[in-house]
Amino acid sequence: xxxxxxxxLVKRALQPVLLLLLLSGVxxxxxxxxxxILSDDHAFQTISAYGNRQIQTPGIDRLxxxxxxxxxxxxxxxxxxxxxxxxLTGTYSHINGFKDNVSFNFNFNQESFAKALQQAGYQTAxxxxxxxxxxxxxxxxxxxxxxxxxxxxxxxxxxTGNTTRRYQGYVTDIITEEAEGWLQRRxxxxxxxxxxxxxxxxxxxxxALEDLGRYDNIKFDLPRNFFDNYNTRKAAxxxxxxxxxxxxxxxxxxxxxxxxxxxxxxxxxxMTADQQKKWFAYYNKIKAxxxxxxxxxxxxxxxxxxxxxxxxLSTAASLxxxxxxxxxxxxxxxxxxxxxxxxMSDQGFYMGEHGWFDKRFMYEESFxxxxxxxxPGVIKPGSVINxxxxxxxxxxxxxxxAGGVTPKRMQGISFLPLLxxxxxxxxxxxxxxxxxxxxxxxxxxxxxxxxRYKLIxxxxxxxxxxxxxxxxxxxxxxxxxxxxxMMSVVTSLKKELAQQIExxxxxxxxxxxxxxx
Length: 517
Description:
By secondary structure, the protein is of the alpha/beta class. The protein contains 15 helices and 16 strands.
């Protein structure tokens, strides 16, 4: 008994010393490195690991094979910058202050997983797209980030010390090479957290030159609701993001006509002469074929869809190849065993569903995001995780994994127990709030998703409610909010929505909800 008491006293005495060693980086063998590969607008339905049978994504699929695929990963606000702000801070947009891409500049003075990991003795770096405004990043030992959206070809990077450097080549390749360079230069005595932020697959979907025409021999399947008429859904009818009317021939589909010089993507303008020669040789042939066919009406819309898919998926192929390169680097340099690798997009994307491209809506294709993870010895290879997780959950999970202190302000839930196959109390309801009231004419809205239902409240541009039974209507085609048979369901869901609004302290949603409209 005396020996046990003595052992307890010794352990207590050593705890401050061990903590100091952890913070100094001397002891970290059990604390994993973290690599977050974050893409832009990459739709889960375009990844073969998620069931796409017309193309293959071997780099991403490798993470599913060697780790876990998340079937129900979602975002809090489906738009680029705000999603990254939520990932970094573990908070909803109304808490971190970055609600949309046009009205706000991210405040780096607030708490983030990068700062928490630094305090826990980690080296931190962000390379590639960040898209959080013009403020100087904090919590990072090194950064090399694209200004704003960045460019696909010969891009500029803003680097530590606020200097700007232009690189020649294709942006996805350059980001991967820059990430490898930082991994080679880092202090090997410390654990690290590296965010690799890819521009791909953001509009205007520009593949690497080697991937031009990769899918030209494939005719892609039209989504079943491609010619959606938006009956019963006023907000869906009011949007401006259709392939038929919104997608631009020069800007989006690279069909350049005489006088279109101002419409040509800046990345084309900044190409070298040799790059431009290969680029225009490919797209001029596409243009000639289009003029020969001269499709009209629905036939033209379907032609635009096929071109969109070919460019988008070729851009995704360039991305996937580079994800494979990053995994190869980790494997070949002895970093895989003690490194958590995460791949996810900042949100989902429409690949013709409802006749659309882009994101923003709480409908499934943009609300849901791909997410896959590999952590040898912890995550069982080939795992499929069906629990709800959200982008705000990454920050507390990273901090938990590092043995750091999670700020009370963070609203996400660490899913580390889920990865360790331990008891996990997550969430049964998802809360969402989209704010931007401009581009693509998508009305601001908030709502909840349960296992069976989705309830959405639109406001400002369109005022009204939508309700979908996801078991009977997984494509979200019929709004049943006004169906008398659904009154009890609506009442129950509104009660749950009110609880979620209160839980996340969303005062703007609370004020709108109280109006009773």
